[in-house]
Amino acid sequence: MGTLRSNRITDVAGTASPIIPGAVLQVKQGILTTKWASSSSSTAFENTPLSVTITPQSTSSKILITGMINFSGESGNHVDFKVVRNGADILLSTETMGSRIKSHIHYYVASANDIYQIQTAPLNLLDEPSSTSALTYTLQAGTPYSAGYQAILNQVATDTDAAYNAYTVSTITAMEIGV
Q1: What is the C-alpha separation between 154 and 169, in angstroms, rounded?
Q2: Going by C-beta distance under 8 Å and a sequence separation of 6 or more, which residues neighbour residue 163?
Q3: 98 vs 7: which has the higher pLDDT
Q4: How many CB atoms lie within 10 A of CB 61?
Q5: How many structural domains compose the chain?
Q6: Which of 45, 105, 112, 148 could cysteine-pair with 140, CB 3.0–4.6 Å?
């Protein structure tokens, strides 16, 4: 058995790294280390500061979006989160919606005790953008059921200065997968 040693592997033209099917070609991450709350004057989704930008090497690549979203909301409120690509919805339900909300994360803050908790939700989305342009994946948040409430990231809803409250971080990661 022999050993192949090389300082560089390129494509046939010698100009770029080869795209290996199933291989992770690049990884980018966005992290939100501060607290954030949505506007309480609207039921519309709005951009949060949590985003990540990736520029695929090939139009055939897929983008795996993963993340950890730490959130809370006010008692009696529904909070929703979704990831958009360059401002456009991706990978949402195809069901006929009526008055229902399309989101990737939905949570109902049922009781007054829930305002002292931070909920954690994972993200795991496989996008097929067919692009080699820069793609920005942004977490949007909203309280589509009722204005007057806020969707909150990285803190409990009460935010009282006490040892039983905490600040956390939320992340979003984009991985280009070769196809």
Answers
A1: 6
A2: none
A3: 98
A4: 23
A5: 1
A6: 45
